[in-house]
Design brief:
The chain is of the alpha/beta class. It has 2 domains: 9-143, no CATH class; 147-425, no CATH class. It has helices at 5-17, 20-70, 75-88, 92-97, 227-236, and strands at residues 103-107, 112-122, 132-143, 147-153, 162-165, 169-173, 176-179, 187-190, 195-196, 200-202, 206-207, 211-212, 246-247, 252-253, 260-263, 266-269, 272-281, 286-290, 294-304, 308-312, 319-321, 326-330, 340-344, 354-357, 362-378, 382-383, 390-399, 404-408, 423-424, 428-430. The protein is elongated and about 150 Å long. It contains 5 helices and 30 strands. 22% of the residues lie in helices and 37% in strands.
Length: 432
Amino acid sequence: MIRPPAARQRLIKSFARDNKGNVAVIFGLCAVPIIIATSIAVDMSSASHMRSEIQAAADSAVLAAATRLAVGAEDSDKEALAMETFYANLSPDLAGKVVGTPDVHVNFPTKTVQMDVALTAESLVSDLAAEQIVLHINAAATISAGTPICMMALSDDADEALSIQGTADLLADGCSVQVNSEDEGALHQNGSGTATATSFCVAGGYDGTNYSPEPRDDCMAEKDPLETEFASDWAAAHIDATECTYSDWPQINSSSASTTTTLVPGVYCGGLTIKKGTVQLQADGMYVFRDGALEVQANGTLKGTGVVVLFDGDDSTRLVTQAGASIITSARSSGLFQGIAFAQNPLSIPASPNLIIGGGSIEINGILYFPEQPLKITGNGDIGTTASQFAIMADTIAIEGNGQLRIKIGQNYTSTGLPNLPAAEETVYLIE
């Protein structure tokens, strides 16, 4: 049917005024951005949750590694621990969605552990906006400055690894005492003697009451801080390949206690006894005593500036001082064996302990290092009273008698040439 012109115009105007169809078209056009926005919001919310979980895992990882750093564990050990802790703190669902390997960096000079995580996760709802979400997480932990450890009993299982008996007093002036043994009686005190330090930490247990402050038990064992460098220095000095410079040196028994005998650096085999008089070691010298004891008797004195005395050989090889003997020495401030005053090859095990009996003047500036050997300190005199830097590290340490043993490490001890020592009373905390 053909409509007249006027009717056609009325129909067109009526269609133009009808907006029912426009609503459907507009809704369809708006639905796409609404869906995209909703998808992005859901994905961002999920990403925020993932970021929080990953950050918590990374924080736990660097704290765990920094705690290991505080006790001197190997670099690889701390990196592995950080990775293990990180993944152990991720949910299985999130761990399965992420790829990539966190980067762990251990900075020894600043005592800092840092973890950088660059992880990529698939979009959880839609790929309308993005196919992947990339997350970057950083975490770092460090260790506060603690108190240097100036006495360490290194054995990991000995009963009475550090023993303080009788009326003997132990004073660790401004430094701490560490006992690595996990035995329930690793630290032992008996008698009226006292033990005073900034702190006492024992991996196992302790008995006795005369401590100030009270020891902490179940501590983590500290790594021997000298082991690696000592072995390197021993090899560099070619000690094992060096033949005897002198053998069966005659007993030094001067007619007067004021008489001085000078010894040159070298390897002394068969032992050496200083019965009377003073033996002067040449400055910056290295003295090795092999297959025999270095014995300083009551009227004998051993002196040396910037020297190191080493023991190596059969089970007769050790340090012995009798009551009234004097040792006045200082360690090297640089070069091989710096900071070490007396030390014994870990493979050289004496049948009897290294023995220091007080009563004379014992002033040793440096470290006594007997990593696999026992050390016994006894007598009625004061030991270490005037030394400015004096530390003891031995497999086991027994302190007896009625004298006082004083050890001390100053806050700036490394400036005197001593190697870095582990510290106690450290606090591990996040910095990033």
